[in-house]
Write a structure and sequence with these properties.
Blueprint (H helix, E strand, L loop, with lengths): L7 H4 L1 H6 L18 H5 L2 E3 L4 E3 L1 E3 L4 E3 L5 E3 L3 H18 L1
Antiparallel strand pairs: 1-2, 1-5, 3-4, 4-5
């Protein structure tokens, strides 16, 4: 004896409670940007090259694609500027 067919409403009900904003239980499509431009233009600071460069990411560190040196998110000056901005605006957010 074959099991009864599952209705679409019952079959997809588990997903409704745990779905994120891009997961739906129906056939409507959402407009999700598919551009990878941010991924390909991302840069980090390389101390050896003294500039922002493209990089390769490892599990623990990122490395400059030009010289192979380790890179970090900001240069020293940009890091201080960012920290100053955060300190000035941290009370506005609360």
């Amino acid at each position: 004896m074959a099991p009864p067919p599952k209705s679409n409403a019952v079959f997809c009900a588990w997903q409704a409670a745990c779905s994120g904003p891009f997961v739906t239980n129906n056939d409507t499509k959402m407009d999700v940007p598919t551009s990878n431009t941010e991924f390909y233009s991302e840069q980090k600071w390389c101390d050896q090259c003294q500039s922002y460069v493209r990089f390769l990411m490892s599990i623990n560190h990122s490395y400059c694609i030009d010289c192979g040196g380790r890179v970090r998110l900001f240069s020293g000056d940009d890091k201080r500027s960012f920290q100053d901005t955060v300190q000035r605006h941290k009370w506005q957010a609360s």
